[in-house]
Amino acid sequence: MSLIANVLGFSAFGFATRCFQLGLQKRFMFEAPQTHLMTMAGFGAAGWGVYELEQRQKVLIDAKKQILLANREKENAEYEAKRASGGEEH
What we know:
The chain is mostly helical. The chain is 82% helix and 0% strand. The two termini are 46 Å apart.
């Protein structure tokens, strides 16, 4: 998901949350429009944070995957070398 989609999606959810809150209180939906903007900004910031978190996790997972693949190749090479030299088989 792109950064823009994350921020806009979270902002829309913030707007809906504020409208729902006012609806529960039986108040006029657009009584104080600045609170809608503040809620949207807060949720948008949360969306940006989630996006950044996903990107950092993706980098860490890719690095760990490379380490695991390298270890697997090393173990396979050792196993094949042992097997070719006539060592014990499992």
